[in-house]
Amino acid sequence: MQVNQPLSSASARSIRLRRIVLLAAIPLLLILAIAVALIERRQRTEFLQADADRILDDPRLAAKTLAKGRDIFLANCATCHGADGRGSTATGTPDLTDEDFLYGTGRASEIESIVLHGIRSGDDKGWDLAWMPAYGQPVPYAREKLPSLSPGEIEQLTSYLRAMNGTKGEDPTAVAAGNVLFEGRGGCWDCHGRDAQGDAAIGAPNLTDGKWLRGDGSRRDISRIIREGLHGVSPAFRGRLDPANVRAVAVYVSSLHARKDHE
Ligand code: HEC
Ligand code: HEC
Q: What is the pLDDT of residues 44-58, one digit of tens each?
């Protein structure tokens, strides 16, 4: 048996050749990796500099953004808003798929700001202009002097709001008294408007559209909100989500409702 047989000159040449190819491949791969990183960085910068409300106009960008946004929504928002975005009237979490917005008009740029800074989240750029006072408490509201209301007055306001939402058979005397309280001493008009249709500049909901944050508009549920108040919190994701992911999830949420009248 032969050991340490010297290599033929042909196989020595092929080994040398393989080394040269390998050595040449390293810088080529490096250049390729740098090029890919640069392209990705440029795409990211362009994505962040673009008008958030226009991203869905570009079909290729839209498809990519919506797929990414959906993943981020499922991982960060679905626990409260539901995997389908329809929220829960048991916890007071709004439906993100309807045309009813507490804040603004449902644009991607408006939602982006809500995701970044939250609602009543403690972030100083978040939405926190008004809370629903707890009229059953001795001091209903810390930010403004408002009267406590008696259980009877709360029932009258409930009758008024139920009548405003089309419920038949409410006692007309109670409805009229509730109307007077709403537009007068109760101070409801100040946030919800005299027509009770709300104010999206401060997050005071429309009280006449048959949609309720908490409960189903029953006498019990409406009177409970007036008695105990309401101040829903959506967390601030600034520092928790990458800015490109914040934007992607905002664009995704803006796609869940069909409203197009802000374009
Ligand atoms: C801990 C529960 C919770 C999580 C997590 C959460 N939200 Fe919210 N979100 C709420 C609640 C409660 C409100 C209602 C606030 C209010 O009543 O003013 C809300 C309100 C909103 C609104 C305003 C809806 C409207 O009708 O105007 C948007 C938009 C929103 N959330 C988006 C998101 C997105 C996107 C995420 C994930 C990145 C998210 N939220 C995560 C609880 C949550
Ligand atoms: C200081 C502003 C302010 C005043 C005054 C006020 N509200 Fe509200 N109200 C709000 C806000 C803000 C919300 C939404 C709270 C939230 O999103 O968690 C709300 C929510 C409600 C809701 C629940 C609406 C829904 O869609 O689920 C009812 C009912 C309501 N208010 C009735 C009244 C009545 C009746 C009065 C007067 C007795 C009144 N509010 C006075 C700010 C106000």
A: 898 999 999 999 999
The pTM of the full predicted model, rounded to 2 decimals, is 0.89
The DSSP call for residue 54 is: G
- Measured on CA atoms in the order 182, 183, 189, 192, is the torsion positive or negative? positive
- Residues 146-185: tens digit of each pLDDT: 999 999 999 999 999 999 999 999 999 999 999 999 999 9
For residues 34 and 229, the answer to whether their CB atoms sit within 8 Å is no
Q: Which H or E run contains 43?
A: helix 9-49
Same fold, 50-127+233-256 and 151-228: yes
Ligand 2, atom 42, residue with closest C-alpha: 132
Q: 110 in helix, strand or coil? A: helix
Span from the CA of 220 to the centroid of ligand 2 (angstroms): 15
Which residue has its alpha carbon closest to ligand 1 atom 20?
A: 234
The rounded distance, in Å, linking the Cα atoms of 107 and 141 is: 31
What superfamily in CATH does domain 151-228 come from?
Cytochrome c-like domain (1.10.760.10)
Q: What are the boundaries of each domain within the chain?
A: 50-127+233-256, 151-228
CATH number of 50-127+233-256: 1.10.760.10
